[in-house]
Please model this.
Amino acid sequence: MALNIQQIRKDFPVLSQKVNGKPLVYLDNAATTQKPVQVMERITRYYSEENSNVHRGVHHLSQVATEKFEEARKYVAGFIHANKPEEIVFTRGTTESVNFVATVFQQFIGEGDEIVITAMEHHSNLVPWQQLCHRKKAKLKVVPVNEKGELELGAFEKLITSKTKMVAVAHVSNVMGTINPVEKITALAHKKGVPVLVDGAQAIAHLPVDVRKMDCDFYAFSAHKAYGPMGIGVLYGKEEWLNKLPPYQFGGEMVDHVSFEKTTFNVLPYKFEAGTPNVCGALAMETALRYIEEKDIENIRQHEDEVLEYATGKLKKLPGMRVIGEAGKKTAVLSFVADGIHPYDLGTLLDQMGIAVRTGHHCAQPLVERFGLSGTVRASFGIYNTFKEADVFIGATKQALDMLR
Ligand code: PLP
Model:
């Protein structure tokens, strides 16, 4: 079913403003998405009617907040097809989720062990593993990326050895939009008994996510990249893994019993949620994911794919253009460089014409360097972007190139 994009745009008041005297064309969705009124109203309602700390009080408001918080957990579990709500840990976002696993996992890592990542990881799914390797004198192995921006699966298989203790891979690349074959990757890793963490930051708003089908051991994402608020995200972990792992942080409701000599810890998922959680964030994340569900992720995907294909086709017709990332399967992201022009200069001129794109290495510096570059211009699409906006973006890019050349 085709989405009514004009109707959807009315849900996002920020889109109707002018920037530098021109209608805003927001193409920085991979960095963060805009928020619909439904999410903003949810936040207001929470602080107007429901605010209280959770899991702590017998009073009415505390019970309401706790109930809603746990309902949000249940909804998120259903949204990504987890087996049970206990497998959902609320975090600050993808970066915290990966740091969490890379920290508590250290007891399973020894000298000479190996962790396998890919050449297209965001720094958030690279640096935590690299630092863990430094601490433990382990080795970080990197699966290469081909010219099209796809993982070399043959190399992947060879890199997983008897020393491998973890595979960490992006579901979708934030620089190129490549959709990685995560089901195949988990099958390869599991054949050798290795767990897999999938960084879902760029997938959650664009693709159906089914952690059971994927059979990943961990899945991380942030609400703000899926029309939800900043400061809240998720770490999904298979129950058997979460039970095996020690707490990440200490304090608050993550305990069972505390004495000066000893502390025993709470059950899942509370064992991993130290301190007052972002209750409002969890509720607003639920609203954002419900928004996606209501529009249907398959409809969203189709619309974004069509706009992406349209914009890519037109961009490639401009002189001296090089698209970075032309994988067979990709979504929502169009990265490019223009011959002889610094991405920053192009991005600045586009901003003057009301167009928000990102320039630079997009927190994936090794990947950008692999293509012999220091940065790209990245246009990234969301549910509300239109073909007309793609035209404006292409026209403005052409104009900027003429000015800069
Ligand atoms: N992983 C990927 C692939 C990303 O694109 C991002 C953000 O751009 C992150 C991780 C980090 O997400 P956050 O800053 O929400 O923690």
